[in-house]
């Protein structure tokens, strides 16, 4: 078929402008911008992937359905059947690819420095999933009645991809590739194992669809081949998916950090490099205010979106000024107890007392205000007042010991998992 | 009559109905995180399950041979609408039998959404060929699920399919769509032999 005929006879050409608007709108409207590097950008695209899968699968099913209705697939072929079907699938695939490209462009425009943490894996998996659903749509077009093929392909791709996330067992979301839509904060990278959980099945479905569409051997042998491909992929993907947590991420490589030391070491990720001087200045100010208390700040401050026991991790946003930076760093000094096994709330009590203490010392909050803010009971309030009445060095020593105890409390996750 | 039963592929409608009823009863309240522009993104499965029946129904109602059907002695439109009525009655009866307690609201919503979606389908089937009608209906339903909310989470007026079971206007709208769809199916059309 001539290329011009291929494109003008397919609905894909007319869908392109609509999909461009849709892709742009979705990327800018689905969530407020808050990207963290390239994995964040591609994960944002993956979150809207059903909107690319839907037109791709439906258009492929529609086009192949037209071919089926014409009776061409049953007549003696002049050209290789797979080649004809591949040609007819191209417009649908292009629809999906175009939507992804628009979403990616919109997301990149919203990100600060997307290439500082370049990771192609989420994009590769998204494209593999898109291609697989397009081919499955084509197979639906070849075998289902034309009237049902396009809706079946649209519903299948749109609902099954997202629907896997509704299942409580996280394995299914890893297998369909949905997990890639939730990656990552600035201090995380996708878990490399996730690619072994997501990619094999996408490739297997694509291969199965190609086998079903081709004319190699009898239908049942092709069907058997398709089942074998999916089973083999499942055998590879299931063990990989089973070993992964709900949001499979690993800590980002520390070598990427940009650090500067004045009174204390402050490290930020390349995306926030411009705010490093402000962070250093704020950290110096905090260190000088804590000097009488002799609080141990030797670990330094480090940019991160999640609390990690034993580390002072602070959040940076693009619009941070000196005041917001100070608040963020004070928050970083508040130890967490959520990871602790804490049946008697001992660690929680320790956490809110140290948090209240930090607020009184650094945030110009009175003990009464701190007691109200953190809902301290009468005993905890008097413990705070006792603590504040002690010599400064003793207060700092108590805070250090509480922070150390909270960092090493028995509880969930191995030491390695707590670093993620 | 046998020809009509065969050409309507009623077994596929029956199969879709069985899957729909089982789906509502077993997993209807489960939510799927469809991409939604707005605050809430967890869509109960009962919102999209009616698509299965509507797709099967339109596929079945598409004339197998327009020339034969144009010259049919049997009242084919009435028979087609009888299938629609049967689908709705079976769903309502299933809801009455299976839906007790918390499930009752789920079934109310399922019946309302099914009636509305079938109404959509019948209207589209009057305007377009079955293939286009089916695809458009699917896209309209999926997009109204995804774009039915404002960014602060409020439901938009046309997004009746997302509302809870007790929402009176949505029930009226679904009934209105069904009535319009039935009227569009009954309305006389000019027969053009091909």
What does this structure look like?
The complex is a heterodimer of chains A (420) and B (194). By secondary structure, chain A is mainly alpha-helical. Chain A has 2 domains: 3-251, no CATH class; 254-418, no CATH class. Chain A is built from 17 helices and 6 strands. Chain A has a 4-stranded mixed sheet with strand order 3-4-5-6. A two-stranded antiparallel ribbon of chain A has the order 1-2. The two termini of chain A are 53 Å apart. The mean pLDDT of chain A is 84. Chain B is mainly α and 194 residues long. Chain B has one domain. Chain B has 9 helices and 2 strands; from the N terminus they run ααββααααααα. A two-stranded antiparallel ribbon of chain B has the order 1-2. Chain B is globular and about 55 Å long. The model of chain B has no long low-confidence stretch (mean pLDDT 82). The interface between A and B is medium-sized, with 27 and 27 residues.
Secondary-structure map with pairings?
The complex is a heterodimer of chains A (420) and B (194).
Chain A (H helix, E strand, L loop, with lengths): L2 H6 L3 H18 L7 H11 L2 H21 L10 H30 L10 H23 L2 H18 L7 H6 L11 E3 L3 H20 L5 H24 L6 E3 L6 E4 L3 E4 L7 H15 L10 E3 L8 E3 L7 H11 L13 H17 L4 H7 L4 H12 L2 H16 L7 H4 L2
Parallel strand pairs in A: 4-5, 5-6
Antiparallel strand pairs in A: 1-2, 3-4
Helix pairs in contact in A: 2-4, 2-5, 3-5, 3-6, 4-5, 4-6, 4-7, 5-6, 6-7, 6-9, 9-10, 11-12, 13-14, 13-15, 13-16
Chain B lengths: L1 H6 L2 H18 L3 E2 L10 E2 H4 L1 H12 L4 H5 L5 H23 L3 H26 L2 H17 L21 H19 L8
Helix pairs in contact in B: 2-4, 2-6, 4-7, 4-8, 6-7, 7-8, 7-9
Brief rundown of the structure:
The complex is a heterodimer of chains A (420) and B (194). Chain A has helices spanning 3-8, 12-29, 37-47, 50-70, 81-110, 121-143, 146-163, 171-176, 194-213, 219-242, 276-290, 322-332, 346-362, 367-373, 378-389, 392-407, 415-418; strands spanning 188-190, 249-251, 258-261, 265-268, 301-303, 312-314.
């Amino acid at each position: 078929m001539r290329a011009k005929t291929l494109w003008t006879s397919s609905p894909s050409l007319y869908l392109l402008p609509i999909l461009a608007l849709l892709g742009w709108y979705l990327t800018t409207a689905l969530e407020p911008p808050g990207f963290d590097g390239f994995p964040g950008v591609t994960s944002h695209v993956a979150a809207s992937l059903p909107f690319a899968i839907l037109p791709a699968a439906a258009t492929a099913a529609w086009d192949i359905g037209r071919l089926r209705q014409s009776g061409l697939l049953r007549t003696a072929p002049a050209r290789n059947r797979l080649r004809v079907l591949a040609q007819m699938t191209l417009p649908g695939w292009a629809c999906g690819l175009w939507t992804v490209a628009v979403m990616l462009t919109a997301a990149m425009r919203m990100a600060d420095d997307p290439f500082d943490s370049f990771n192609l894996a989420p994009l590769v998996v998204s494209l593999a999933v898109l291609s697989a659903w397009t081919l499955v749509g084509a197979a639906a077009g070849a075998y289902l009645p034309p009237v049902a093929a396009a809706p079946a392909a649209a519903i299948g791709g749109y609902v099954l991809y997202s629907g896997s996330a509704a299942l409580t067992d996280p394995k299914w979301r890893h297998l369909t590739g949905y997990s890639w839509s939730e990656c990552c904060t600035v201090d995380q990278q996708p878990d490399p194992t996730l690619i072994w959980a997501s990619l094999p099945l996408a490739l297997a479905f694509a291969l199965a669809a190609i086998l079903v569409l081709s004319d190699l051997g009898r239908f049942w042998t092709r069907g058997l081949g398709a089942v074998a491909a999916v089973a083999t992929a499942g055998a590879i993907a299931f063990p990989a998916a089973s070993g992964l947590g709900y949001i499979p991420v690993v800590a980002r490589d520390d070598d990427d950090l940009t650090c500067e030391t004045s009174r204390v070491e402050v490290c930020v990720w390349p995306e926030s490099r411009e705010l490093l001087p402000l962070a250093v200045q704020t950290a110096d100010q905090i260190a000088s205010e804590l000097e009488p208390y002799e609080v141990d700040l030797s670990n330094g401050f480090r940019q991160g979106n999640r609390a990690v026991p034993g580390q002072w991790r602070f959040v940076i946003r693009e619009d941070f000024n000196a005041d917001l930076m100070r608040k963020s760093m004070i928050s970083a000094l508040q130890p967490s107890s959520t990871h602790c096994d804490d049946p008697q709330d001992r660690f929680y009590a320790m956490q809110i007392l140290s948090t209240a203490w930090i607020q009184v010392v650094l945030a110009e909050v009175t003990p009464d205000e701190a007691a109200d803010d953190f809902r301290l009971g009468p005993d905890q309030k008097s413990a705070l007042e006792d603590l504040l009445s002690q010599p400064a060095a003793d207060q700092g020593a108590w805070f250090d010991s509480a922070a150390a105890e909270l960092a090493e409390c028995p509880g969930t996750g191995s030491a390695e998992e707590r670093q993620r | 009559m046998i020809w009509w039963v065969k050409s309507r592929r009623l077994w596929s409608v029956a199969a879709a109905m069985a899957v729909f009823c089982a789906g509502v009863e077993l997993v209807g309240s489960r939510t799927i995180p469809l991409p939604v522009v707005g605050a809430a993104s967890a869509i109960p499965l009962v919102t999209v399950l009616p698509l299965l029946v509507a797709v099967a129904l339109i596929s079945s109602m598409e004339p197998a041979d327009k020339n034969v059907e144009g010259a049919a002695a049997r009242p084919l439109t009435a028979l087609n609408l009888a299938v629609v009525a049967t689908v709705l009655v079976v769903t309502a009866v299933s809801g009455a039998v299976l839906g007790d307690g918390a499930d009752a609201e789920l079934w109310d919503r399922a019946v309302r959404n099914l009636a509305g979606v079938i109404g959509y389908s019948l209207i589209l089937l009057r305007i377009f060929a079955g293939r286009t009608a089916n695809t458009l209906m699917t896209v309209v339903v999926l997009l109204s699920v995804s774009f039915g909310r404002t960014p602060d989470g409020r439901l938009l007026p046309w997004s009746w399919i997302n509302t809870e079971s007790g929402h009176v206007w949505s029930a009226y709208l679904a009934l209105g769509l069904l009535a319009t769809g039935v009227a569009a199916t009954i309305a006389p059309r000019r027969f053009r032999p091909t």
